[in-house]
Amino acid sequence: MPQSSPSRIEAHDPLWQAQMTIRLDFNAMLKPVLGEAHGLDAGELFALQPAIDKVHQQITMREGRGSEFLGFLDLPFQSEDEISAIEATADRLAALGDSHVILGIGGSFLGARALIEALTHPYRNELPRSAREGRPKIYWEGNNVDPDSMASLLGLLPTTQPRDIERAFTLNVISKSGTTLETAVAFRIFHERVRQVYGPDYAPYIVATTDESKGKLRALADEKGFETFAIPDDVGGRYSVLTPVGLLPAAVAGIDIHALLAGARFMADRCSNADLHENPAYLYAALQFLAVAKGYDVSLMASWTKRLEFFGFWYDQLAAESLGKEEKGRVPLTSVNTRDLHARGQQIQEGQRNTVVTNLLVSKPNHDVEIPLVEGDPDGLNYVAGKTLSEVTAKALEGTVFAYAREGRPSMTFVIPELNAFTMGQLIYLFELATVTEGYLMGINPLDQPGVEAYKRFMFANLGRADMQEARDEFEARPKSSPEFIV
Ligand code: PA5
Asked: Quick check: CB of 177 below 6 Å from ligand 1?
């Protein structure tokens, strides 16, 4: 069912690992391809090496800003025992119910979903249980307060104890703080449904992933006897995909999490060398940093497979929440091509010169489709007959990069040999490390998110939370809207 997860042997075979190495082609960022007026200067790029060396020291010695949250660097090296415990729980949940509801938001949502979308069947919930190899359908809630979506999912779930596993469901609630409103409200609602359906012995149907000791969710889980997994103190939400936050949902969906971590270790090893010519994370950070300095303050991640769209959303959050502070930080966006060439293509090609495109290309898809030859050529497409869709994708990418480059529009391309757990592990580690590196080059703390608290204060105040009187007073004293300016 997981699409092309390498076996454990493959994930440890050096030859296979070398073939799975992700490469960054940044020719179309530089003057020789982009031209003098708009290309970056390679000399200027590599002149950032001393600054990178300093950042490397800050990261490896854990002495930069926010270094108390650099624990994500250790996650690829967690013990086999920890991983096996996650797998055992995943198997237990899969055996209890054929639907699995995952509640979480932000860093407690996007990475897990990115893994499952990248590595399992694109229409997995529509497959019969046997075709999913006994792994449950996955549903996501607690990432919003959208009543339609929540009510619809509640409508799919049983209200009385089901007789067969096909109707049974389990619940995983993920929240590091244990207090995030969206997730906590959803948990209150789904918790009640689980209790209603399974009666007094409902605890085995719920798993909680939260702080080791703090927060309301921890207290509730301990009191009710739910199985729990802890998110390490030194790992921030959006850097937590390689903790049980991402690993448990991935394992429930049948993804080989050993291979995932092997991929992350492989990238960690590549990135132990500070040399910009060798280290793709430092190189990517340096390229984006230099591009912003030249006025390119929008970055568009363009995945050339639908399966990486959620990876793009995961990266949007990682970059936006990590780098958008102190009135700095590029604006990260996500697109899927060729779909969004019909939406954003015009703007990238001829709009403001403010965007750097990062392409994600998977060289070999898990499945391919050949375009048939049709007699009489009624639609005039026989010139592509015999080609596969992946060949068309590769040609479309080459054409797009050239079309951008001849107008001095910068782009770069990560070439991913295949989509599997090992390459996904590489990608996650690479982009996490690149984000911290870019933040340190910018002189900001890429590991905190003080700005996110502002909306929460006024939302809690408006909802009547007792300890928010001061915020409520401030809200009431706000400049009033005039009906004159509402049409
Ligand atoms: O990166 C972060 O810290 C945030 O995006 C959090 O992951 C998000 O707000 C969810 O928080 P929590 O896991 O505490 O519910």
From this structure: yes
